[in-house]
Design a protein that fits this description.
With 249 residues, the protein is an alpha/beta fold. It folds into two domains: 51 residues, no CATH class; 149 residues, Rossmann fold. 42% of the residues lie in helices and 22% in strands. The strands form two sheets. It has a seven-stranded mixed sheet with strand order 3-4-5-7-6-8-9. α6 crosses α7. It starts with a helix and ends in a 9-residue tail after the last helix. The relative contact order is 0.11. Bound molecules: zinc ion.
Length: 249
């Protein structure tokens, strides 16, 4: 590289300009080195800008449900995204007052197929009923299986069948105990111009993510589901390991 630079400089295209000798190759080399030096910063800036423009409302529609009518917004960075976050806004919700908000991460096994291994389906139903009655929104986040995806979630379940718990199984698969983030939920709140919320949750991570977010946490609404014969140890783990604010049944 050094030889290349030396040869380039010696034999480079030079031109006299107002009695100043300009070596254009030297300028080129400086430009290349400047780019290489700034490359990672440019990449970080690109990511930052991409994140900042990431979520937009791609579509909206009113949907009647068993719990009342909701206006549903699809949030994504692209109209072609087949798995956008879905924001369900209960009819009559006033965004100028503190809004009841549920950050709910996707769980197809619990919500669609009524799996007894978790309480996600029941939590979603109770949250929909609550916001329908009191006003509020559900931010349905596409981070299946604590954000490891449905395939890895089933792999983790297979490990649980061998006696490992939910945390051990995730770690054995090379994932964090909980890979979810709630940055997108905060972004959604900002896009909707919601400034103060009551968070419907038992999860301290969701409460902590609001710190320094610019969104005011007015209060917490607990969302406790009585365990069944299958998910009791899972809910115990949530309380004991993840620190979820749950009663001991
Ligand atoms: Zn679940």
């Amino acid at each position: 590289m050094k030889v290349f630079i030396a040869v380039t400089l010696i034999f480079g295209l030079t031109k006299s300009f107002n009695n100043i000798i300009v070596n254009y190759n030297a300028i080129l080399i400086v430009q290349i080195y400047t780019f290489l030096f700034l490359k990672k910063y440019i990449f970080v800036l690109y990511l930052f800008l991409k994140i900042k423009i990431m979520l937009q409302i791609q579509a909206r529609s009113d949907i009647p449900t068993d719990y009342g009518v909701f206006t549903v917004y699809a949030f994504s960075d692209s109209e072609d995204d087949w798995n956008p976050h879905l924001v369900w806004v209960a009819l009559g919700t006033d965004f100028a007052k503190p809004v009841n908000v549920r950050f709910h991460s996707e769980c197809i096994t619990g919500e669609v197929f009524h799996s007894k291994k978790c309480e996600c389906g029941q939590q979603l139903s109770v949250a929909m009923e609550y916001v329908s009655k009191h006003g509020g929104i559900i931010i349905y986040l596409r981070q299946e299986g604590r954000n490891i995806g449905i395939i890895n979630k089933l792999k983790a379940y297979a490990l649980q069948e061998k006696g490992f718990d939910t945390v051990e199984a995730n770690l054995m698969l090379g994932f964090p105990d909980d890979a979810r983030t709630f940055d997108d939920a905060i972004e959604v709140l900002k896009v909707l111009d919601i400034k103060a919320i009551n968070l419907i949750t038992n999860n301290p991570d969701k409460i902590n993510c609001l710190k320094n977010s610019g969104i005011q946490l007015n209060g917490r609404v607990p969302l406790e589901i009585k365990p069944n014969e299958v998910n009791k140890s899972y809910l115990d783990k949530k309380r004991e390991y993840f620190g979820h604010l749950l009663k001991e049944f």
